[in-house]
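Aim 2, interim progress. The first record below pairs a target sequence with its structure tokens.
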Amino acid sequence: MPLSGVAVSIGRNTFDPPAPVVPVVDIHARQLDLHDSALDASGILSYNARQTTQGGRLELIPSMSGAQPIVTAILFEAYDTTGGNTITTTIGTVALDTERTNTHPDIFVFDNTNDEVQINQAGTYAIEYRVGLDVSSGTRTSSRAQLERQAAGGAFAEVAGARSFGYHRTTSQGEDTLMCKVIMDIDRGDTVRIRGIVLAGANLTQLADSTGITIRKLS
């Protein structure tokens, strides 16, 4: 699987056979961190496009920091620490206010004002959401959450097969968490968000620390 947008490490002992040639087109890396274990020497091989009019050149920069691990995980997670957002019979956006994990800020751009995540690298992603809700009166209530996607320059649309449902009994026993996980293809610049609605009954309130979204790039 190609490694896109990550730093790659290659460690090699001086007495090992020569390492195989790896085509650059199969790496798509920002840089290669090289390490010779016998000499305890390191360097960073990077591409500098500004050094020549012939299209750039590769530069080997000595380093004393040693080899760096391969970065394989491309992850994002955000959740709601505050709670209190109201879900009604009119569909609305589920609140997210805190970014916990973002391994690649150039890929995942979190908008905590509009509760949306923009994804700036095409690929196949696993997207999982959870929505913790509580009923605000003594009325038994049913609810639905759904994932929506907006293509760059387009409008939001519901993602097929990404609904979840909840049932909230009474104010003293009304907590429920709606959860769903999908694997889907994403185009560069797509934006995702979670929406919620009351299907029947009373208004619902988001519970603090029980609502969130996790996004992982698979390929």
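The second target in this work package is listed in the same format:
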Amino acid sequence: MSGRHFLRYTFFLTLLISILFLAGCAGFLASKRPLRQMEPAELIQQLQAHYAKLNTYQGFATFTAATELGGFRGFMEIRSINPDSMWIKVEGPFGIDVGMIRMAERDVLMYNPFDNTAFHGNLDSLELKRLLPIELENSQMVLGLQGVLILNPIEQDSNVTLSIVDRNYVFRLGESETVWIDPDGPVITRWERRNEIDEIVWEWQGKSYQKKGKVRLPQLVKIKRSDPKQDITLRYSQVRTNRKMKRGWSEIKIPEDVHVIEL
């Protein structure tokens, strides 16, 4: 085959593959049915049923954090028994231990080996809330770092609307909060809260979802808050779900000379 014929053959082969690929994609997209209208209570029930399949979680992630005190990069390991028990270990560059957090229901213990200091308190403490990236109830905080948020049952007379936008369900909770839901799962992919002048004061996003065991989970989690300023991004490299936790899985050993501050 001459060079000219070879180039012509390659061109037509590439064109044919492209046409077949585009036709296949078009057929696939065209075959998607429009989302059906749902009552808010029904969608919330489906969300809760999906996430109820996630009993235990262990994840390893790289993360970046920007706060009022500056920026930080490091590694994080998260273990949890859902919905309200969690253990976190944070490492800086070169594997240096930076801190550990344990949550058991509403009780929180944070240990900072750098400062030889530990903080202990209840989630109702205002001082403690300012240190944590998610300001919702404890179960939301535990699940949110795993890439999961849930909606609680809605009262009949509450100011809630549910619409369909770009093949996503969108909840509007009153005038300040909006929640985006991917029907595949279903899973919450974004949740934002705005103030009275329409500025975002808190935002959670999950991206790059994959099936992990029985549950769809994001490989990327972003959490932002304006007061105090916090911008956290987690990129998960490994996730294990629904495995039995070893005894002492959430233990934090604090040296006797560490000063524990009660909040």
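The longest helix spans residues 3-31. This observation will shape the mutagenesis plan for the next reporting period.
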